[in-house]
Amino acid sequence: MGRAIADLVAVTEGFSIAAAVAREGAGFTSLAGALAAVDADVVVEVTGAGAGAPPAGAPAAPRGPGGGGGTRRDAEARAALERAAADVAVVDAPNFSLGIAVLRRLALMAARRLPDWDRALLDRHHRAKRDAPSGTAAMMARDLEGLDIASFRQGGIVGEHTVYLAGGEEELVLTHRAFDRRAFARGALAAARFAAGAPPGLYGMADVLELGPDP
């Protein structure tokens, strides 16, 4: 994901990389060293299992712990984000995809208007993804109470989430498919651009897309 963001930055006007950081031994500088050596407008943090909160002064903080490579923050990391948001703009989301942000909003709208319908979600990712359900599926489960989730890890599937709402005589199906990880990188740059100009606070991708408050 970090490399996908770096590749997109290289061809996107208005962005440049001040420093890149990865786990020890990956060929990059340390986080402390990077932040001490550069003057960046936005820090984009993409972390997996067991990762803590981003450093203070990190306006765009997208992902956090769950399983290895997962996307869920624990309570301690969430509290640290909230503390940081008192001083800087923090965009926190388990998934940077712009399409997922819209899918979440559509699913919320549908579920609130069809409260008696059954709800389920299919979560499909590549075989190397270690967390199941995905952080996105976990987010949807928090949104839609009573949501049944089925997770499959198959082949090279980048990411697919399908929400099913079923009534007695009809069914509504909402699907998002990611064909390339650049989709998440593109959303990360949108979040970074938003964070760079936003007042202090804790935001989500719905704020980046100006979708308004949850229905």
List key phrases describing it.
17% strand, 215 residues, 2 domains, alpha/beta, Dihydrodipicolinate Reductase, domain 2, Rossmann fold, 33% helix, single chain
Characterization of the model:
The protein is α/β, with parallel strands linked by helices. It folds into two domains: 2-95 and 182-208, Rossmann fold (3-Layer(aba) Sandwich), CATH 3.40.50.720; 98-178, 2-Layer Sandwich (Dihydrodipicolinate Reductase, domain 2), CATH 3.30.360.10. It has seven helices and six strands. The chain has helices spanning 2-9, 31-37, 75-84, 98-113, 135-143, 182-197, 205-208; strands at 89-91, 118-125, 148-153, 159-166, 171-178, 201-203. The strands form two sheets. The protein has a four-stranded mixed sheet with strand order 3-2-4-5, with helices on one face. β4 (159-166) and β5 (171-178) form a beta hairpin. α1 (2-9) crosses α6. The longest helix is centred in the middle third of the chain and has 16 residues, at 98-113.
Q: Can I get a quick summary?
A:
The protein has 215 residues and is of the alpha/beta class. Helices cover 33% and strands 17% of the residues. It has a four-stranded mixed sheet with strand order 3-2-4-5, covered by helices on one side. Strands 1-6 form a two-stranded parallel ribbon.
